[in-house]
Amino acid sequence: MSRSRQMRRHAQKMRRNGLQPMVVINSDDPLPDVAAVLIGRALWRYRSELAPFYLAVTLALGGVVLHITHPEWWPYLLGIATVTAWTLVMFGDRFGLALRSERLYGAAVALGSGSWLAAVTALGVTFRPLPQFLVGGGVVLALPWWTHRRRRAKVRVDRQIAAWPEIAQTIGLAGSRAQSAVVDVWGWRARFALARGQTIEDVIAKVPTIESALGTFRGAVRVFPTRDGKANRFELRVLNTDPHADAIPWPGPSVSSISEPIDLGPFEDATGARVLLLRRHGLMGGVAGSGKSGGINVLMGNLSACRDVVIWAIDLKRGMELQPWASCIDRLAITPEQARALLRDAVTILEARADSLTAEGRRVWEPTPESPALVIIVDEYAELADDAPDAASDTDSIARRGRAVAVTLVAATQRPTQKAMGKGAVRSQMDVRVSFRVREA
To answer: Which one, of 414, 389, 392, 381, lies nearest residue 315 by Cα?
Structure first.
């Protein structure tokens, strides 16, 4: 039997059973989704924006059911709403409501929703003016939700993470997948798992492509290995806002002791720059106008709040930079002669402390308010090297021997090179190095 005859016989059987054969001719494109699928996808995609509407519908349906089945439950519902609101105000930070305004907003929503539900349970959903309260109160309480910056940022990140499989296919990292994501003030970071054969070096080489695919500005993407060190994992850091684009208000001292890490502000990737200066020497380098003076001021503000620190300073620009801190500085040198004397006295203190430690059988000096650490801040160290070259032996001695006895040297200069800072060992002993904008390596 020919193939065409078989097809006709099958068609006759289908018609006898009530089926009508149909042939669809198209260009091999997939059939369009039905309206219900499109609506369902939209409701899920915009679930964050529509959350107030979902809550209102849930309250209305719940009120109808409770009014029919258990109208006597309204006192319990009101009590639950009150306890929930109190819990959010007192312990909301444990539920992710870090700000006080967020906790108060959560409490207002819980109390308002619970009170309305209790009233509907007792009186019915058609009892006036309960429907008007639901609509009006819903709109009022929805406005803070719609305008909340952190919520909108999280929604954007969730959508970018959801689109990652398509992005990964485009940029040549097919098979990689997102494992977790966290939103912060400046942007977001996420942990990704790589497909077999892919490494973090492959991801680093595609950073410009990732920036283009995510629609960020140039330099906004950072790629790091994960803390567990696995070769098939990486962490992606995306900045939506440049943390150094505008001046950052100083929040005040971050420490009360030299033994605590000092917060100098955010790195370019918005992570905190926390530096421990106890038994370490520091170097700040950067061209004029790069923020070096701001860094010194932040350091001075934190050191001034430490009870176990005495600050000495050298400013050979006649005190132009450090004079505003004169009330917090125990000794300020503004001429080469004063700088030589200050450094000689610092070496004397260093040697006296070393003798004291030897006599007591100790190896390190523990700073206290009675026996504080000594921090020497030198602004424009290159000027000191040029104007007082004979002081180089004292700075070398402080750099080599000052750590154990809590004598710290912090230098700031526009030229943080070995040549500009003299031929001594000062630069090589400075393991805390803060680089502002520079024009050469």
So the answer is: 381
